Hints:
The chain is of the alpha+beta class and 90 residues long. It has a domain at 18-78. It has helices at 40-44, 71-78; strands at residues 18-20, 27-29, 47-52, 64-69. It is extended, with a radius of gyration of 20 Å. The termini are far apart.
Amino acid sequence: MKKFNTVTETVEQKILVSKTCDVCKKEYPVYDDLKQVINDTEINEFVHIKNNCGYGSIIGDGDTVEIDVCQYCFKKMFEKYWRIVDSQWG
């Protein structure tokens, strides 16, 4: 036989409220004043780059660098370099 007690716990969570582009500094909120989701596409299309630098890196041995870029800045900065390698649209 199992006996249980009910325990009420407070759980702390991190909830994303906005993303800010590290290039243009524009902030994209996730929710409006009524706590409705907005800018869903803008938030989902952010590009996050994270790199753990290795031995001999010009950035720094063992350093980790990160950048968050909105889709507009990403396109402006990298469109001439990117390759579309697999498209779900054909």
